[in-house]
Amino acid sequence: GQQVMQIPQYQHVQEGEDFTTYCNSSTTLSNIQWYKQRPGGHPVFLIQLVKSGEVKKQKRLTFQFGEAKKNSSLHITATQTTDVGTYFCAGPAAGNMLTFGGGTRLMVKP
Amino acid sequence: NAGVTQTPKFRVLKTGQSMTLLCAQDMNHEYMYWYRQDPGMGLRLIHYSVGEGTTAKGEVPDGYNVSRLKKQNFLLGLESAAPSQTSVYFCASSSTGNSNQPQHFGDGTRLSIL
Question: Which neighbouring-strand residues pair with A15?
């Protein structure tokens, strides 16, 4: 079935460095969602992208949807310790369900 | 402002025991979902419901049963627990079943099967 693959699986950064996680699909996606899960917490919806080439920003977070709508990225500028957690992308699957990527776990060294 | 509430938060079972996980949402959402989360595996859909009285299988349904007798509640049952079912279980809900609707998650149930 439909799958979305995320890379990298883990990322250690020094506080203040930038961070990017990538989400890739073998098929065209009608939309893509991003979630954040803090350690010990639950996934929380961040944003949804729908249009080809769409770019959305939330403070230091920049979300992009590829022109072909097969990939997406989340970029965090100047990471802070509050950014620690696992970031998931999710795309449409059979039956209008969501299929989640494996997630990228971000660790920030102060 | 409860959102999605899961009970219990933690549970330890012995192999072969049964238990039920409860999920309740107060947002009048039609769709509800049960996921399991294992290290490095992301979130995998177990079962879901498109409305009161309906249930359907997700990606990994074996060993689990569900019921949605009331719109606000979605129960996940393990009839005979196995160590492979040790996981963190998340319930979620969405207003509709369109994949462009955000899902709202509960805090999770951490389940260990010995």
Answer: none
DSSP B4-31: EEEE-SEEEE-TT--EEEEEEESS--SE
Beta bridge partners of residue B5, listed in sequence order: B24
Residue spans of beta strands (DSSP E) within B50-86: 56-57, 64-67, 73-78
Of A8-12, A99-103, B25-29, B97-101, the range with the lowest mean pLDDT is B97-101
What would the pLDDT profile of B62-74 be if each residue is shown by its tens digit?
A: 999 999 999 999 9
pLDDT at residue B47 tops 60: yes
d(CA A74, CA A55): 10
Backbone φ and ψ for A37, nearest 5 degrees, come out as: -125, 115
Pick from B29, B64, B35, B36: nearest CA to B50: B29
> From B45, which residue of chain A is nearest by alpha-carbon distance?
A99
Radius of gyration over every alpha carbon of chain B, rounded to an integer in angstroms: 13
Residues in chain B closer than 8 A to A42 (CB atoms): 90, 105-108
